């Protein structure tokens, strides 16, 4: 009887010791909007086994597309420490870079493992998706302060005169919190090729 109790206690202690502290997102709200004549899309996030699913149906070829990100990151303990990032990128230029640069090929190849992603411009009519994507993690992120995050994403179709038409308008809000996890995704160095 005592040996059964000892085994149960050891199993409980070992399972608890497998958990690591990790900073992970908890998204409170994901709102998406698409110009349905041109494109439709969905974003889903699973907090329990953290991964992101993105699907997009392109209904008409898209000849030139800009994507715009606005990200606000705020320290939860002291909101005085806030970072705001704002950038606009052209999808065709990104794809050209991905095809010419070793770093671009590495990142593009990494993303391709998760689904059917855009790799030509103009973007052809069709289905594109990323399933069960999760960026590599590192336990050292648990020493960072917990954060609130607000992400605004837009995609614009550019015509020949560079006039913009809104294709997508998404808003994601949530927080990055330190939590115990037992399903750590490998860190960035695990992505590097293995040598023998």
TrEMBL record:
Keyword Nucleotide-binding in annotation: no
Keyword vocabulary terms for this entry: Signal
Taxonomy, superkingdom: Eukaryota
Record InterPro entries: DUF1091
Signal sequence annotation: 1-19
Classification via Pfam families: DUF1091
Annotated protein name in UniProt: Reelin domain-containing protein
Annotated organism of origin: Drosophila navojoa (Fruit fly)
């Amino acid at each position: 009887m005592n040996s059964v109790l000892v085994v149960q206690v050891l199993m409980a202690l070992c399972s608890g010791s497998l958990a690591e502290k990790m900073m992970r997102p908890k998204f409170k709200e994901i709102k998406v909007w698409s110009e349905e004549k041109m494109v439709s899309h969905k974003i889903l996030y699973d907090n329990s086994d953290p991964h992101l699913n993105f699907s997009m149906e392109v209904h008409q070829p898209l000849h030139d597309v800009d994507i715009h990100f606005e990200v606000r990151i705020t320290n939860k303990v002291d909101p005085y420490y806030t970072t705001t990032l704002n950038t606009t990128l052209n999808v065709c230029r990104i794809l050209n870079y991905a095809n010419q640069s070793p770093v671009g090929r590495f990142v593009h190849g990494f993303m391709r493992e998760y689904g059917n992603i855009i790799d030509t411009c103009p973007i052809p009519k069709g289905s594109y998706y990323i399933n069960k994507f999760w960026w590599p993690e590192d336990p050292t992120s648990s020493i960072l302060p917990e954060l609130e995050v607000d992400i605004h994403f837009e995609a614009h179709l550019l015509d020949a005169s560079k006039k913009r038409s809104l294709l997508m308008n998404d808003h994601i809000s949530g927080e990055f919190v330190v939590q115990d996890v037992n399903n750590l995704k490998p860190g960035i160095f695990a992505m590097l090729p293995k040598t023998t």
